[in-house]
Amino acid sequence: MRAIQITEFGGPEVLREAELPEPVAGPGQLLIQVDSAGINYADTHTVENSYLSRSSLPMVPGAEVVGRTPDGRRVVALLSDNGGYAAKAVAHEQLAHDVPDTVTDAQALALVVQGITAWHLLRTSARLAAGETVVVHAAAGGTGSLAVQLAKAYGAGRVIATASTKDKRELALELGADTAIDADPEGLKDRLVEANGGRKVDIVLEMTGGPVFDASLAALAPFGRLVTYGMASRVAATPISAAQLMGRSRSVVGFWLAHCLARPGMYREPMAELLAMVADGRLKPQVGGVYPLAEAARAHQDLRGRQTVGKLVLDVSR
User: Fold this and answer.
1) Mean of the pLDDT values across residues 245-251?
2) DSSP string across 93-130
3) In this prediction, what percent of the chain has a pLDDT beyond 90?
4) What is the pTM of this model?
5) How far apart are CA 136 and CA 128, in angstroms?
6) Inter-residue contact 149 to 169 (CB < 8 Å)
């Protein structure tokens, strides 16, 4: 079968097309004929072996697919062991969800990792209360564009989006953000406070790391929560002492979707809600680009270069 395989760790250049044996489904698993595969920023870390979990070689990247089961069901699935950038993939049955006819492949793929992450950032980690101010960094990205919409749907009093370009900030406003500001770390803390009417903010969803993390923490109000779920800058934040948190009654909460996989309800229940919201138009995933399977390296290059918005998808039929 056609697949994208890596045999060495590195950047986009190590993603190469290959012919590989088809995977075999074991007990409790489904074999899926893949139509489309999703691309996540975490995939770029997996490919260079810089993610929270270690990668092993050789490997077919990709954690999410949409396709058909042998009995004809159209499903979207989260893959616990990668393997998505391929013509066929194997998923655990509990991590596969039937897709409504009114939901496109790309929309479904936007929910598997990024949508469920946004759901848990707001509901599980930040515990958003009605009326609170939420800052969404990278608000035009896959997770950010969904988090903006969900924060408004779940009762946020004010949503402040950050993004690196004017076009991305305009998209965030179209999706429901109350205001959108430049993501440049220089002066970011002051811009966040100004965007909230001179008051510090209640919740920050942060996936950049480095100085963006530092500025976000400084912008938190007492009892504010900063939820960190990535390190896209590949730069570590300044270490935090207990006194810094106690002195301002602030919280820093980490989130990694992998911890939800051992608790099926933490995946299936949010997925069902999100699919229903997309099906009836309450949630609009943004599709930033569809690439042929053979151009997976270009997709990674564009993603790392911050040239994209929303969800990126591989068309496995091309």
Assistant:
1) 96
2) GGGEEE--TTS-HHHHHHIIIIIHHHHHIIIIIS---T
3) 89
4) 0.93
5) 13
6) no
153: left (phi over 0), alpha (psi -120 to 50) or beta: alpha
CA atoms within 13 A on the CB side of 224: 23
Q: Flag whether pLDDT at 264 surpasses 80.
A: no
Give the pLDDT of residue 52.
Answer: 78
| Residue 63 neighbours by CB under 8 Å, 6+ apart | 38, 40, 42, 43, 78, 79, 82, 84, 112, 113
Burial of 44 (0-12, 13-18, 19+ CB in 10 A): buried
Residue 140's pLDDT band (boundaries 50, 70, 90)?
very high
Fold topology of 114-258: Rossmann fold (3.40.50)
State how far the alpha carbon of 38 is from the alpha carbons of 16, 243, 306, in Å: 17, 41, 17
Domain ranges of the chain: 2-99+286-315, 114-258
